[in-house]
Amino acid sequence: xxxxxxxxxxxxxxxxxxxxxxxxxxxxxxxxxxxxxxxxxxxxxxxxxxxxxxxxxxxxxxxxxxxxxxxxxxxxxxxxxxxxxxxxxxxxxxxxxxxxxxxxxxxxxxxxxxxxxxxxxxxxxxxxxxxxxxxxxxxxxxxxxxxxxxxxxxxxxxxxxxxxxxxxxxxxxxxxxxxxxxxxxxxxxxxxxxxxxxxxxxxxxxxxxxxxxxxxxxxxxxxxxxxxxxxxxxxxxxxxxxxxxxxxxxxxxxxxxxxxxxxxxxxxxxxxxxxxxxxxxxxxxxxxxxxxxxxxxxxxxxxxxxxxxxxxxxxxxxxxxxxxxxxxxxxxxxxxxxxxxxxxxxxxxxxxxxxxxxxxxxxxxxxxxxxxxxxxxxxxxxxxxxxxxxxxxxxxxxxxxxxxxxxxxxxxxxxxxxxxxxxxxxxxxxxxxxxxxxxxxxxxxxxxxxxxxxxxxxxxxxxxxxxx
Length: 468
Prior knowledge:
Belongs to the GSP F family. The protein is of the alpha+beta class.
């Protein structure tokens, strides 16, 4: 029977149900052909229905069940071997039930790995979606807001703004391309048969995941190999079947190596010791149990016990994996949230901090400073700007003058350590308060403070006080 890609895909999940239903029907006393008729009637998948009808025709033509399953080309060699052994020994139903149990164990192990990875995958996926939403829709708007502020922005904010501008202009191309690239990367690293060894290398070198993968493979090795041998399948055939079942290349190579060595007449002990880095594949404790049970003739029983023991360990490790990944994922999420928050809050904080230095309206036009001489009728104009005014005319202040703080629109005026808007803020003074004038630099006036020595204020908001 010719099996294409789509037929193999459509029958992948229903093969287990077919064997389980066949075992139950044969146990109830129904003959083989009638059992196939019943299964074909209940099968919903068109692909699986086609396979069941094909096998029924083969059986009606005189083929055995194992030959019909082999001709369908959708069942693995070890399943066909078990069915064939059951036909020869008269234990077909028992072997079918053993296959069902084995498949249930495999599905349970896969489900444990999937459940352990579901939470981190969900959190990371949600984080990617939220990040794309922020980058595509929110950042471009923030960019226009911050651009209107004539202040030097923090580097985090500048990076965020440039990213927002870029995505605002090219996001409809970049984001779909990025999603496609990520999907292809996951496919080729973890799924595609020829390149998935890269993903396996990553898993097998990540401490916690490595332990989980190892426990799953040892559980599968013990339970499947033990049951195949108990059913009467030769050790070499069982090992080759195990190599066909596993998807981890490191274990696949090891099982094939064991099969070759055992077929040459070597024991498990010798086969294990001649393989490089065996301890990275199987713990020494498991190896010692296998060697001892091989000598005592109880290998299949010990293998099943190992499989059950490591199945329990797999369940415990999968729970611990989720527990350990939760804080790590929270750190990653909070790092992303914190970066965006800092990029937005830092410039806002800077603006609020400088608000006392910035007038709420346009500053008055520069006026010519008039220097009062000893003769009141003589006034000497000077080109330098002054900060203090008296009756609408700017006057030159001296060290004996008192200046009054003018209204700023925010009910305070920042006093800075140096004559610069970026300098440290020493304190704040209120409109109407009076302080001793010390000196001035263009745009800034230095005043004497009661407790903190002296500081600089914007010259636009001081004037000579009428009261000394």
